[in-house]
Amino acid sequence: MSRATIRRRSRPGLAGYGLPILSFVVGIALWELICRVFKVPAFLFPPPSAIAQIYFTGRIDWIGQTLVTLNEALFGLVIGVAVGFLIALVITLSSVLNKILMPYIVALQVLPKVAIAPILYIILGFSNTSRILLIVILTFFPIVINTSTGLTDVDRNLVHLLKSLGASDRTVFWKVRLPNSLPYFFDGLKIGVSGALVGAIVAEFVSSSSGLGFLILNSQYTFNTTAAFGAFVILTVLGLVLYAGVILLGRRLMPWYRPN
Amino acid sequence: MNHRIPTAAFIVAAALVIGACGGTPGATGAPATGAAATGSAAPTGLTEVVEVTSYVGGVTSSAPHDYAGVTEGIYAKYKLKLNFVVLAGTSQAVQAVAADRSGLAFTHGDILDEMLIADQNPDAPPLIGIAAGAMRNPVGVMYLQSSGIKSPADLRGKKIGVPTGSLSEQYLDVFLAKQGIPKSAVTIINTAFAAQQGALLTKQVDAIAAFLRAIASLEIAVPQNDKIGSFVFGDYNLPSPLAGVTIQKSLLDKSPAVARAIALASTESLHFCVVNPAKCVDDFVAQNQGRDIPQTLAEWNVAVRLQYGFDPEKAKTMKPAQLGWYDAAVIAKTLPELKTLFNIKKDFDPTTLYTNQFVERP
Amino acid sequence: MTAIVAVKDVGKTYTTVKGDEVVALEDISLSVQKEETVAIVGPSGCGKSTLLRLIAGVEKQTDGKIERSTDDGRFVVGYVFQDSSLMRWRTVYDNIKLPLEVTNKHNYEKIDQLIEMIGMKGFEKAYPIELSGGMQRRVSIARAFVHEPSIVLMDEPFTGVDELTKEALQHELGTMIRNLHATAMLVTHDIEEAVFLSDRIFVMSRRPGRIVEEVPVKLPAERDPSMRSRLEFFEAAKRVREKLLSIRAMSVDLEAGTP
User: Fold this and answer.
1) Measuring CA to CA, which residue among B348, B309, B322 is closest to residue B267?
2) Is the peptide bond before C208 cis (omega within 30 degrees of 0)?
């Protein structure tokens, strides 16, 4: 009897993270150098040293503003995910509804949200509801597409297997389609997460009274480009953290899955 | 809006929050006063706090005094709670007031926009000004002297940055026409308000059409070897849009006490800001974080001088309500000019466009 | 002997997307007795897999009938696919458990029994991604037996496996079938595999698939690798091979236009 061995994928060790970190540090240093050597005016392109200081002037409530935007993005994301998942279920289970809904879903995706935003505000009011709805619109589509692919792209043999055992379509759905769709759903979630942050900023740009987007507008107006960059940095970090969060969540929930 | 993220049960909280945070501002307000609906009975102060939306026209600080008024407790004194909604420009803000379903809203709009909206949208609720604002034409063309522009005629062949569809663009069109420059002779670059100054300073455009307060920022930021030039539209006989605190007429008819409160609070806030510009700007920037304070202060001082035409020393001796007085003669003279220049078809009885019932003659 | 499955004059015709009719199977008649293993050998595309699906009840035949006999009132199949087709989100244990769940049987001790039989004790909690191809196949085989099916249907279960591993797997499978007293039908294009594992071999022609020969395998019930060197093994294999070659020759002639 042959000896069986388990293959375990290796995670990148410290050496694997070393190069990206080094690249990042070098990039920052280069940026600082260029700003100083070429005397780039701060209102055009501030150096990293100035950006680092802007967090401590005391005039701007960075944490508060970040939380406002993060709050909007997360609520929008959660609702967008729920809505997207539901729609994916509906269009998978009913081909009639699929045909009815798809044109609207695609239309909503294709329309530029910056253009829709003001109309949304006027119809629903200049409040957080409209902002969050905008974010939902920006996040639900990748969830729908990816999840519905995952629900339909199943191993036909498994379906045959279950049917040959007398299983109903319902059983096939719960035992095969749903679990199969999980990795696809997470792929959609990765896209959705960045969509949510972008959506929060777009919503704030069109109308808001607080948040990182509002802060960016205000700082641009008085040439406080350094503050705007400070906001960009925070947004980038948020985006990375959320993305990493999705990946980690995926690893936790799908220990059986190894992406290519 | 609560800044703390709920740490548990997002999904459950989301549904609740949508309901809580999503309410239309002002929908809850119900003024309880003993005042008569219309007419001569002098309305009294509000007995309960009323929530009102202040639509701010643009990030261009057209209303620093309302933010300061809130911080200094002036609005609270008149039993008003403000929800600020910031929009792209003055015109959008006026449209938003017209579109506001509750009617409990105001903005620093102008009589010109009141007429334009009524002219183009017969179904829109009529608007009315209840306290005068900056009576002068606030728009002008600003340019870098290094671009070779010396007189308006030099604008031919140049690139001018202005937000498409804004009051500034409309005035630019009138200015060019009056100077005999066909629009085809200049290139209009659609530039958002927030981007205009940057566009000018980096020479992406040769000139911009903007509110005059921008001169202050530009003078601070302009490189050493260059200077800012300007054509103030008011100097070229372009009629003023006649700015003032704008509300729906139905609000005045149904709740004159609320209208009165808005008029008085707004003029008192304005007075505070004219007399205490530094504190005013501090209050404003605290709620509009990211702005540079010295620059914002310089802009406000220019605005007071060139757009409002106030002398801070003189204003100290005036009563706040006097700052909001509409000069009937000026308006009577300006309206026909506005009508012609902006192709307004409808005829307006001036008394439907503004009222002095809440303010005082200086 | 009781026939577990009796296929009588069965035919299957498909309609293609374009509307043409394709006859996959024609006049198929065969039977599988209790505790017998039969093999179906034929060229690719001859309809072997279709026949399995018909017997499994996943598809319905166009002509003829399929009689399924049941000992205790139930007829349920076990299936082994060409790819292991395991549920990658389930552990080895839960993958094997699947048929028990679906058929509502609760003798879960069978799962451990089978895991031991396929030599994978200790791997109950492993996921398919952590297993080699051969191990995955073993799990899928165990899954086919766990619910004591009336017949185990196997569709080219060892395609793509290297020679040595294949022979080892075939030996394990044969032993399992015997120890569990299972009835089985095996579809394969590997002649040696068919001979090693089965009691009778049916040779099927090209499409439209027909049974053109029945070859009995005169080897004892207990088969170990040494059987491969026996004369009876060669004879059966030779008969099957010659028939397959003649099928190929026939169709070549047909293609060339001569009857």
Assistant:
1) B322
2) yes
Block residue for tokens 């106030």:
B310
Closest residue in C to A167 (Cα–Cα):
C102
* B interface test, pick of A222, A223, A241 with most B CB neighbours within 10 Å: A222
Please state the separation of Cα C174 from the chain's center in Å: 12
For residue B138, give the nearest of B306, B344, B340 by alpha carbon.
B306
CA atoms within 13 A on the CB side of C183: 21
Q: Is the pTM of this model over 0.80?
A: no
**Exposure letters B229-259 (e unless 16+ CB within 10 A, then b):** bbbbbbeeebbbbbbbbbbbbebbeebbbbb
Euclidean distance between CA atoms B351 and A58, whole angstroms: 49
Residue with tokens 């929008």: A76
Tens digit of each residue's pLDDT (9 = 90 or more) over A4-52: 455 555 555 556 778 888 998 999 999 999 998 988 877 778 899 989 9
Return the closest-CA partner of residue A201 out of A70, A55, A111, A52: A70
Which residues of A are less than 8 Å from C124 in CB distance?
none
Q: Walk me through the domains of chain B, giving residue ranges and CATH numbers.
A: 41-136+241-352 (3.40.190.10), 139-236 (3.40.190.10)
CB contact under 8 A, C131 and A6: yes
Domain annotation for chain A: domains and CATH numbers: 63-253 (1.10.3720.10)
Per-residue buried b or exposed e for B84-97, using 16+ beta carbons within 10 Å of the residue's own CB: bbbbbbbbbbbbbb
Interface touch C102/A257, C-beta < 8 Å: no
What distance in Å separates the CA atoms of residue B218 and residue B229, rounded to the nearest whole number? 10
* H or E element at residue C92: helix C92-102
Residue B217: pLDDT over 90? no
Averaged confidence pLDDT in chain C: 89
- Which token pair is A49? 């040293």
Q: What residues in A contact C83, CB-CB < 8 Å?
A: 155, 157
The per-residue pLDDT for range A102-115, each reduced to its tens digit, is 999 998 888 888 88
As given in the structure block, the two tokens for residue A215 are: 């802060």
CA B160 to chain CA centroid, Å, is 23
pLDDT tens for A135-180 read 999 899 999 999 999 999 999 999 989 998 989 999 999 999 999 9
Distance of residue C78 Cα from the nearest chain A Cα, in angstroms = 8
Contact list, A74 vs chain B (CB under 8 Å): 5, 10
Q: B5 and chain A: CB distance < 8 Å anywhere?
A: yes
| Phi then psi dihedrals of residue C116, to 5 deg | -65, -40
